[in-house]
Amino acid sequence: MRIRSQDTVMVISGNDKGKRGRVLSVDREAGTLVIEGVHRITRHMRRSQRNPQGGGRLQKEAPIRLDKVMLVCPGCARPTRVGRIPNAEGKRVRVCRRCKTELG
Ligand SMILES: [Zn+2]
Fold first, then answer.
1. How far is the CA of 89 from the centre of ligand 1 (A)?
2. In which domain, by residue range, is 86 found?
3. Contacts from 18-23 at CB under 8 Å and sequence distance 24+?
4. Of 27, 71, 76, 89, whose CB is crowded by the most CB atoms within 10 A?
């Protein structure tokens, strides 16, 4: 998996193209992720037993597909592809393909 939660990503296609945000969660099985402040949807809530305060509109981020985003490198602040190379201890780590910063 190239992208993890807490990463900053940029959307590269679709309605939210160009937006950046922090990854809140990744669903590996579905191949989707939720980004803070990106792809917000409005749910119209009805007052109910589960939701006694209820009613009104709820803004919520919806998942978007992983292949619509690129990781934003904290080193060079640009969207980048992610490589995996062995570091000094021989462990494979994620790196920025542009500036070779380790991404942890
Ligand atoms: Zn970089």
1. 21
2. 73-104
3. 20/72
4. 71
Residues 97, 60, single domain; the answer is no
Model confidence over 62-100: pLDDT tens digits? 999 999 999 999 999 999 999 999 988 888 899 999 999
Please, which residues have CB within 8 angstroms of residue 12's CB and are 6 or more apart in sequence? 68, 69, 70, 79
Say whether both 91 and 40 belong to one domain: no
Query: How do strand 64-65 and strand 56-61 relate by DSSP bridges?
Result: unpaired
Are residue 25 and residue 54 in the same domain, yes or no?
Answer: yes
Provide the token pair at 40: 């917000």
Q: Ligand 1: distance of its center to the CA of 70 in Å? A: 12
pTM for this entry: 0.83
Residues facing residue 85 across a β-bridge = 93
> Residue 66 corresponds to which tokens in the numbers above?
């992983």
